[in-house]
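Field: COMPLEX_INPUT
Field: COMPONENT_COUNT = two
Field: RESIDUE_TOTAL = 334
Field: MODE = joint
Values follow.
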Amino acid sequence: MNALPYSGEATTAAAVARVEQGRLARPNGWWGMALFVATEATLFGTIIGTYFYLRFNNLHWPPPGVPEPKLTLPLVLTGLLVATSVPVQFAVVTASRGQLARARAALLLAAIVQAGYLGMQLHLFVHDVHEFPPSGSAYSSIYFTMLGAHHLHVFVGILLIFWILLRTATGLTSYRMNGLRATAFYWYFVNVLALCVVGTQLSPLA
Amino acid sequence: MRLSARYLDPEFLQWFGLFGAALTWTVQLVVGFGVTVARCGPANAVLGVDVKAWELTLMGTGIALALLAEAAALNILWQTRNVDYGGPPPEGRRHFFALAASIGNVLFLVVIVLSGTGAVFHQPCTQS
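Field: COMPLEX_OUTPUT
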């Protein structure tokens, strides 16, 4: 008889840990997230490509009257956001060993920092909208499109992490473990995206 | 000095061998297009883009990465030499991927060299 339970029957933390140790391939949920991330990467590739196309067709970038982007605060905030990959990865590792309480604590810590990041970024976003509205120039139009799309993705990531926190409140199952893996993958992608977006946003300073 | 086992992991070598050269060519084309747009746009008065330097750098990096991808594919092919390409996964699948990659990478290497050479000798900002 096979010592490993069928993954759908792994409804306790100990059974999930045994399934995870014996797993030979990534679950379908992970591959589904990989495909989703590929489409999102295409979207952001297009947005960043548009940004540079417009930049190369304008002599002054940002245009006269629009302030240059600030350097310190976006870099610090992005550093904080990227750092939340550590507790998220810690949550995946501990959950796959059946240590649910540790995993949930790490996820909660990550979600708090991410929510703080998003709050600060939204405050800056609204401030910038009042200073140079999106309809003012090609620069402001692509600037707010890029930042708005990124903030939306961070918001979705935070929602996913809260969803996993809620789902695991009643215990760990193989299905929820797959959800955690997929959420973590999405979160790493959002962090890579944050680096690309902040690099593009600060490129006029180079 | 030994390379970290993480980077010699057969799964990593398999995927790098299969997609490394293809992705390198994609990046060469996309960045090359961007550089040409920058060179021919009004902003070049401030930016002063050197298309040839960019294209030569892209081609050199592309050749190096394509050769590394080929080395990774050949490494996997050698590791799985006793397995049939129709055999059970992961070894059989790995052998099949490595076989396809070892041939495909040679084609991508040629494409990278031809794209780069063409871009270097092309006169930018003129209608062809």
